[in-house]
C-alpha cells in the first residue's frame, strides 16, 4: 500500500504582488527564508522556509491580482480558476509527499463504491505536471494531485511527487538553510478547524487519506504524521477540531482554508506566546523535549 502520511510542506499565501511582505514577516519571527523563483504557471512566485525534519513552508503569492489580466483572456481564466485564487492571505493549504503517480486513484479506491461512505474524499486523476525555475536557473519538475474542488481547501492534503530530485526542491544544504535564529527544527502540529457539523465527515475523509485511524474524542482527532528525519524528537501531528471560541468561529466563517495554526518545535527558551498577526495566520511554539 502507498504511504500517504508523509508531510511535505505547508502553504502560506501573501497578498498579490506582495511576496516580499510575507518574507519580511517570517524573517521577523526568526526564520531563514530562501527565495524560490517563479512557477511554470507564470502566475505565482514563492520563497521557502526549510526545517531539519525536511518539511518546509512555501510562502507563495500571485504575481498580480485578477484584475491585472484582460477580461476573457486565457491568462485571466487561468488566474481566476487557480486552487487558491479566491482565498484570503494566511495559511491556505498543505501537501503530503506523493510516492506513486497513481496516488489519487489509490486513495479513491480506499472507499470504493460503498454507499455507506457518501462523503468519501475524492482526488482528481490523473496527476498534473508542475514545476518552477529557481533563481539560480535550475528547473524543477513535479506532478501534483489535488482533491476534488468540492472539498474546502485545506481540509485534506494535496500530494506532490518529484520528477527531479527532492533535494533540488527542498535544499537542506548548506546547513545555514535550516539554522533558524528562533531555533525552529520542524513542524510539531498542524491544526485544522472545520464547522462542528462537518467534523465527523472530515475525520472520516482524513482517515481514508491516511489509511490510519486517529486518536479521537467527540471534539477532536489527531493523527501522527511522518517526516523526512530520523530524529525521534521531531515528530509531527495533525490535529482536527471544531471551533470552541469566538476567534475560531470567525476563522471558520471567513471563507479561508481549514488550516488554523502551525506549531513549530523550538528550544525551550524560545517557546514564547503564539504569534498572531492579521493576514498572516497563527503560529505557535512547542518546546523540544
UniProtKB/TrEMBL annotation:
Which Gene3D superfamilies does the entry link to?
2,3-Dihydroxybiphenyl 1,2-Dioxygenase, domain 1
The highest taxon in the source lineage is Eukaryota
Positions of the Glyoxalase-like domain: 7-197
The residues that cross the membrane are none
Check the record and name the Pfam families matching this protein: Glyoxalase_3
Quote the protein name from its UniProt record.
Answer: Glyoxalase-like domain-containing protein
Instruction: Tell me which species this is from.
Output: Botryobasidium botryosum (strain FD-172 SS1)
Native organism taxonomy? Eukaryota, Fungi, Dikarya, Basidiomycota, Agaricomycotina
Amino acid at each position: 500500500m502507498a504511504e500517504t502520511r508523509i508531510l511535505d510542506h505547508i502553504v502560506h499565501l501573501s497578498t498579490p504582488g506582495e511576496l516580499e511582505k510575507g518574507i519580511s514577516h517570517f524573517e521577523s519571527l526568526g526564520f531563514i527564508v530562501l527565495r524560490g523563483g517563479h512557477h511554470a504557471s507564470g502566475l505565482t512566485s514563492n520563497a521557502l522556509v526549510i526545517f531539519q525534519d525536511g518539511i518546509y513552508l512555501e510562502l507563495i503569492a500571485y504575481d498580480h491580482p485578477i484584475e491585472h489580466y484582460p477580461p476573457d483572456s486565457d491568462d485571466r481564466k487561468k488566474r481566476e480558476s487557480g486552487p487558491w485564487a479566491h482565498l484570503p492571505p494566511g495559511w491556505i493549504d498543505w501537501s503530503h509527499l506523493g510516492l506513486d503517480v497513481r496516488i489519487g486513484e489509490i486513495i479513491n479506491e480506499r472507499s470504493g463504491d460503498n454507499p455507506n461512505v457518501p462523503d468519501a474524499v475524492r482526488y482528481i486523476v490523473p496527476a498534473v505536471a508542475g514545476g518552477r525555475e529557481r533563481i539560480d536557473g535550475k528547473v524543477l519538475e513535479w506532478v501534483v494531485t489535488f482533491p476534488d474542488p468540492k472539498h474546502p481547501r485545506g481540509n485534506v492534503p494535496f500530494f506532490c511527487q518529484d520528477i527531479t530530485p527532492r533535494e533540488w526542491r527542498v535544499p537542506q544544504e548548506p546547513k545555514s538553510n535550516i539554522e533558524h535564529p528562533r531555533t525552529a527544527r520542524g513542524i510539531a502540529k498542524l491544526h485544522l478547524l472545520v464547522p462542528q457539523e462537518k467534523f465527523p465527515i472530515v475525520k472520516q475523509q482524513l482517515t481514508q487519506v491516511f489509511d490510519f485511524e486517529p486518536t479521537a474524542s467527540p471534539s477532536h482527532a489527531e493523527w501522527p504524521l511522518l517526516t523526512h528525519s530520523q530524529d525521534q524528537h521531531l515528530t509531527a501531528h495533525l490535529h482536527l477540531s471544531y471551533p470552541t471560541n469566538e476567534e475560531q468561529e470567525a476563522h471558520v466563517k471567513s471563507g479561508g482554508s481549514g488550516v488554523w495554526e502551525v506549531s513549530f518545535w523550538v528550544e525551550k527558551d524560545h517557546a514564547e506566546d503564539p504569534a498572531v498577526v492579521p493576514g498572516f495566520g497563527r503560529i505557535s511554539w512547542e518546546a523540544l523535549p
